[in-house]
What we know:
It is a single chain. The protein is built from eight helices and nine strands. It is an alpha/beta fold. It has two domains: about 1-150, SPOUT methyltransferase, trefoil knot domain (Alpha/beta knot), CATH 3.40.1280.10; about 170-240, tRNA(m1g37)methyltransferase, domain 2 (Trp Operon Repressor, Chain A). Helix 7 (about 200-220) crosses helix 8. The longest helix has 19 residues, at about 200-220. The radius of gyration is 23 Å and the shape is elongated.
Amino acid sequence: MHFDVLTLFPDIFRGPLDESILKRAQEKGLLSIALHNIRDYAIDKHHITDDAPYGGGGGMVMKPEPLFAAVETITAEEPDAPVILLTPQGRLFTQAVAAELARHSHIVLICGRYEGVDERVRQHLVTDEISIGDYVLTGGELAAMVVIDAVARLLPGVLGDPGATLEDSHAQGLLEGPHYTRPAVFRGWEVPEILCSGNHAAVARWRREQALRRTLERRPDLLARAELTSEDRESLERLAAESPGDDK
Length: 248
C-alpha cells in the first residue's frame, strides 16, 4: 500500500513513521509513505497556502489552488485513488473503516489546518472525509498518523502474528479481554488459574467471556452492533446480573 500525505508541516511525521511496526513494514516493501509539502504547489512567489475567509471572521482558510494542484499531480497516473480529508467534520474513524481503507493500494491524505479548507476542496476534490474523534486538533497530521498506523496493521505480513488483528479490541465488535504474562504471582496477585491449565478450549471460552464482560462494563454501546452468538447473549445476561467490577 502507498500513502501520499499532503501537509504544511511534513517534519511532524519524522519519528512516528520511522519506528517500530511502520518502519519494518516500509523496510519489507509492504508499505510506502510519501510526504508532500503543500507549499511546494503554491503558484505565487511567496508560496501562500492560506488566506482570510470571505465574509470576515477570525482565522485563515487553506486555499484551493495548491491542494488541487498537489492532488492532481499525485494522482495523475491513478485518478481513482481515494482522496481523504482529515477533518473534525468527517465520518468517524473505526476499525471497520480501517479495514475498508486497507483494501486500497493507494490513498491520498490531506491534513487540514487553521479554520479548515476552502469548501470547493470538499465539494470537488476529496472523495471522503474522516475524523478520528469528537474533538479538535491543531491540524490533521496526528489524525493522518492514526489512520496510517491503523490501516497498516491490517496489511498482510505487517504483523508477526497473522491472526493478531482478529483478536484486537473492536476487530469483532468487542473490547479485548485482559492479558497476563510471567510472573504467575506478582505482589500477591495471581494469574487466573484457567490460563495456566493448558485447556485451550476452556481458555478460549474464558477469553470470550472476559471480552463480553469488559465491553458490557466499559462500552455497552458496542454490544448493539456486535456479532453475538446465542451463547454470548446468555453470558451477557448472567454478567449483567452480577455486581459491577466482579471479574472472577
